[in-house]
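FORM 7B: Structural annotation worksheet

SECTION A. Query
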Amino acid sequence: MWIVTLIGVGIMALAHTAPARFVLDSLAGARSVWHMPRSAPPTIYLTYDDGPNPATTPDLLDVLAREGVPATFFLIDAHVTEETRPLLRRMFEEGHSIGLHSATRGYMLLAPEELAQKLEAAADRIEQLGGARPCRAFRPHAGWRGGEMYFGLRQADYQLIGWGWMRWDWNWFRKRTAESIVGRISSRAAAGDIIVMHDGDESAPRKDQRQTVDATARLIPVLRSRGFSFGTVCQNESLLGPDPPQKLTLGDNRDTKRPRAVEL
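SECTION B. Predicted structure
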């Protein structure tokens, strides 16, 4: 009997913390996105968490600009400041997409109304400082999620964006290095994969994440040589100014500054 209980507890834990699509995500349907369309042309989706980071993000943007690759940045609200305003504007101007990220697993415990309010407030802040409104895309810290979170995302009309299995940069109990990141991702990458790396740190806004810059610079040519293009997981919702607002669609830019919608 205790074995059955342990299995049940394990499944419940994985449903909230698994670093890949699991039970709750299947129940959430299109509200949960863990990979993009796997149709031609084969496309990889680079995403970066925990920024913007003045010590790393500028160099990362330089690499992406040199390679002509669009990416998606999931930003922590507390890191969106007057100091990082230029980085926000540069992301928008250079064709990247911006989504929302949390600095704590505690978001999983928020009531739906409170989560919806936090997401809208964070989007307002990005729009105020960056000049454009981000995607309605949210990535919880470490991927921890729950039923209440999905109710909140539905209330705010956001989608949860995950990543592909083993398509990440972290190493348990070992230091992250460009070599380990490139080796893990390049050997597993497949069309439609969402890859997650970190240009920031949730508890250290200025910690240099040099391994991410170096890994990105090495990964892009390797993946291109295998026939992959690159895209963003979503399109920014609207731009301030004379242009009319753009309706959010999950989609990608596929190596160009001009977004193209993709149905999920």
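SECTION C. Observations
The helical segments are 2-17, 23-28, 57-67, 85-93, 112-130, 147-156, 178-188, 210-225. The radius of gyration is 18 Å.

SECTION D. Sign-off
Analyst initials: ____
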